Amino acid sequence: MASDINEVINEAKVRGKRIFFRDVEYRNWYDYTLVLVNLIEKAKACPALTDKDGKTVVTGFHHKTVLGLADKIIAAVKEGKIRRFFLVGGCDGAKAGRNYYTEIVEKLPRDCVVLTLGCGKYRFNNLDLGDIDGIPRLIDLGQCNNAYSAIQIAAALAGAFNVGVNDLPLTLVLSWFEQKAVAILLTLLSLDIKNMFIGPTLPAFITPNVLKVLQDNYSIRLITTPDEDIKAVLG
Ligand code: SF4
Questions:
Q1: Quick one: pLDDT at residue 162?
Q2: The domain made up of 63-234 is a member of CATH 3.40.50.2030
Q3: Sheet architecture: strand order including 138-140
Q4: Which candidate among 9, 41, 60, 171 keeps its CA 20 to 30 Å from the CA of 90?
Q5: Atom 3 of ligand 1 has which residue's CA nearest to it?
């Protein structure tokens, strides 16, 4: 719903008791008051949601908790039990193409660990990926603001292996949608993180020229298909 609205509406204003939206081409204002009143009345007439039984998902691992497993993680990497970490994180949206993120997580080989954060994780954070020597294969760090935790984990692992973050067996696969994600993407770029995958479509501010700069300087790649991207990373 949100992405559909964003495709047609650019701006909103309230005049008295009436609500107006302007289209993306900045041409016309439309009075949506009646539409919204009807929508609210419809929502109020709907029955209350009922609880559904489901599995329990463990979420919101702080980096201190993950780094409590640092010795185990480092040993598992050195022994070849963990081949690579994939940070699959970012926004969710209603447009087609976002099943990519569920599929790539499902298709990763059993010697890969998935870190996740942000709204996009709700597409796969209920998957049972098992563990590697007691290290969960799916570690949910929380919301997008917890990119801070992901950065702390990457920095700690880079320190432990005495390499730069870009030399870690770590790939970032990002899903784009919201404005806040821009700030996070810019943070990652300012930290000189390279080889990130981004999708399912490019943010509007990434014009062809900006994309070229990002590709030349940060080797940013657009997602393709889960199979092709896994092959590109793991060989
Ligand atoms: S920027 Fe917004 S939509 Fe994207 S992950 Fe954060 S809270 Fe969710």
A1: 95
A2: yes
A3: 138-140, 112-117, 84-90, 170-175, 197-199, 221-222
A4: 9
A5: 91
Asked if residue 82 lies in contact with residue 105, where contact means CB atoms within 8 angstroms, the answer is: no
Give 40-47's long-range contacts (Cβ < 8 A, gap of 24+).
Answer: none
Model pLDDT, residue 3: 43
**Quick check: 86 and 171 in contact, CB under 8 A?**
yes
Q: List pocket residues of ligand 1, CB cut-off 6 Å.
A: 90-91, 118-119, 144, 177-178, 180-181
Residue 128's pLDDT is what?
93
Averaged pLDDT in 10-residue chunks for the chain of 235 residues: 48 83 76 91 93 85 93 95 96 87 97 96 94 96 94 95 96 87 92 95 86 95 96 96
Q: Give the residue, by CA position, lying nearest to ligand 1 atom 6.
A: 144
User: Where do the structural domains in the chain lie, given as residue ranges?
Assistant: 2-45, 63-234
Distance CA 84, CA 96 (A): 28
Q: Scanning the structure block, which residue is given the tokens 């799916």?
A: 138
